Amino acid sequence: SCIDKVWGSEKTPSCPECREEFPSRKYTVNRLLSKLSEKARRVQQAEQVRKPHQEQNCHCVLESQQCLEHKETLKLFCQEDEIPICALCVVSTKHSGHSFVSLQETVNRLQNKLKKASSLLELKLMDIKALENQQQQMIS
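Structure (tokenized):
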């Protein structure tokens, strides 16, 4: 662990954060915090892997609704690159062999998907609150 590395290089072990000194090299591992930090590390690594790919393909970023490359209005959505594009991008080699749908159709589809997911989450939250109330009543 990082604490072991820091303590291995010090004569008197201390907290890497607040520098409080400890008489012995004993500590308790917080497994929950360890799992959370590992999960955050994996998410961050996945985003770093995804980001260069998106930047490489994203020559048509939605910026005031215009294609950065062609200065045309973004009206289509490239399904392979998952980005909005203009009509000129469709014929470019960067999107050769890709499939396209209208941007509005994609917006509507994703909005519906979000609404469904939101509704499901609200139902789950209501179930959790009901269970929490039951537990509180059993405790009292």
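The first helix runs from residue 2 to 8. DSSP finds four helices and three strands in the chain.
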